[in-house]
Amino acid sequence: MKNKFLLLGIALASLTACKTASTLQMADVKTQKNISINNELKNDEEFVKIIEPYKQKLDKEMNQKISHTSVDLTKQGDNSNLGNLLADYTFEGADAWTKTHLKKNVDAALINIGGIRTTIGKGDIILKSVFEVMPFENEVIIVKMKGTDLQGLFDYYAKTQVNNPVSHLYIETKNGQLTQSLINGKAIVPTQDYYIATSDYLALGGDNMKFFSKGEAISTGIKLRDLFIEYFKKTSEVVPNTDIRLNFIGKK
Q1: pLDDT for 43-101, tens place per residue?
Q2: Taking a C-beta distance cutoff of 8 angstroms, is the pair 239, 233 a contact?
């Protein structure tokens, strides 16, 4: 008898659930008019009042001067001054971390030009400018690679001839063929371990940089943007290096 009452209870509960589901499914759906977000859309005054103190605080912080440059920092050309600068900052920050945590030196650094989203005009450099240049939360990664596996890196540049910024690297091609590849001015030693600093995006194969998969990726926990901000703040007057690192002879 108890089992019968139990089964009856379960059945009633099931019917009730089905009825509720049926009711929900039959609810009226009314077509709403799309609201266009433009200058005619009025602000929610109450909401504006709530966020205004936070906005003022954020604006004050974002507009603080962190450095200065006497030249426009651009991303144009195979050896752009902004690209070289940020690649050098990546190298220096990664090298400091690697010395402390791995007791090793970083040999070179490589970042992608697509990750640099805009330029910085000459004059005061404000914090907001760095956020505009690097809006992503990319992390600095150290990739430990054998000298033999670095051939993939050089072949990548020879094939693509793309201006992805590098530091402590010299890559020369002629008519699409690799003619010279150096790290710190020296030829690659096939049996040597090299430590290359890059972003997590590239270390995971972004921009088709599959050659990094042959190495061992080591996380630093450092955000690229935070690193750039730190180094801009360290330098009252930014003077980017304009040396030739990518030399694509006969590039079309």
Answers
A1: 777 767 777 767 677 677 899 999 999 999 999 999 999 999 999 999 999 999 999 99
A2: no
Neighbours of 251 (CB within 10 A): 13
Q: How many residues does the chain have?
A: 252
pLDDT for the residue numbered 60: 73
pLDDT at 2 over 70: no
Contact 242, 73 (CB under 8 A): no
**Residue at token pair 């200065």:** 68
* Domains of the chain with CATH codes: 60-249 (3.90.780.10)
**Contact of 243 with 84, CB cutoff 8 Å:** yes
Q: What are phi and psi of 32, to 5 degrees?
A: -100, 150
187, containing H or E segment: strand 186-187
Q: Identify whether the C-beta of residue 197 lies closer than 8 Å to the C-beta of residue 112.
A: no
